[in-house]
Design brief:
- This protein has about 210 residues and is mainly alpha-helical.
- It has 2 domains: about 45 residues, Arc Repressor Mutant, subunit A (Orthogonal Bundle); about 160 residues, Tetracycline Repressor, domain 2 (Orthogonal Bundle), CATH 1.10.357.10.
- The protein is built from 12 helices and no strands.
- Helix 5 runs parallel beside helix 9 and helix 8 crosses helix 9.
Length: about 210
């Protein structure tokens, strides 16, 4: 990807986050990126082309973040990082998560990729939850409730994906990543072992310390 194209994509994301996806025109992006509209149109003749490139950029960025996190977890870290990674990612691309339905309605071809990403994300969460069982952080799934952890994965994804949107709907100002983490961990806390609870408390203490610095 050449520098101008990347600059346009990053500028678009910044404006979409600030003003809302539907409120940003291509000429707004060109002006903010300090390039001519003709130069913009050379790289992206239509808004659809730009939107597809932005979504492709998002997919690549998420895979990079998840790959880095998976390496750390395989070295012994708990899967608590997963909700944090998703919330940080969604914060950086907040416009998409505040307006997912309308974006997919406007660009139906994106739906297939979206469904693919949802399934991949849930599989990653599922795999890491079961890895945490092997590490002694998670309790084994109850025999009298088969499929419980699959449902837990779905709820973790739902909470993460709609965290910023639900806060906006409720008019809440507590839409910070830390608050989002606390709600996600409220879902898994009953399933943690004592070892897992100790790591959870240690993890949250460190996260809050990092955010306050």
């Amino acid at each position: 990807m050449n520098k101008t194209k990347k600059k346009i994509i990053l500028t678009a994301i910044k404006l979409y986050n600030k003003l809302g996806f539907a409120n940003v025109l291509n000429q707004d992006i060109a002006k903010s990126a300090s390039i001519s509209l003709s130069n913009f149109n050379y790289h992206f003749a239509t808004k659809q082309e730009l939107v597809f490139s932005v979504c492709e950029y998002m997919v690549i960025d998420l895979k990079r973040r998840m790959s880095e996190t998976s390496v750390l977890i395989n070295k012994g870290r708990m899967a608590l990082d997963i909700p944090k990674i998703y919330l940080e990612f969604e914060y950086d691309f907040k416009f998409f998560y505040l307006d997912t339905y309308n974006i997919l309605q406007s660009y139906p071809v994106l739906k297939e990729e979206m469904y693919k990403q949802i399934n991949e994300s849930m599989q990653i969460i599922k795999n890491l939850n079961y890895l945490s069982i092997g590490m002694g952080y998670f309790k084994p799934e109850p025999e009298d409730f088969p499929g419980l952890y699959d449902k837990l994965v779905e709820q973790i994804w739902v909470n993460s994906h709609f965290w910023f949107a639900q806060n906006k709907i409720r008019g809440s100002k507590n839409d910070s990543i830390i608050k989002g983490l606390e709600t996600s961990y409220a879902l898994i806390f009953p399933h943690l072992t004592e070892k897992g609870k100790m790591r959870y408390k240690e993890y949250m203490t460190n996260i809050k310390a990092e955010k306050s610095n």
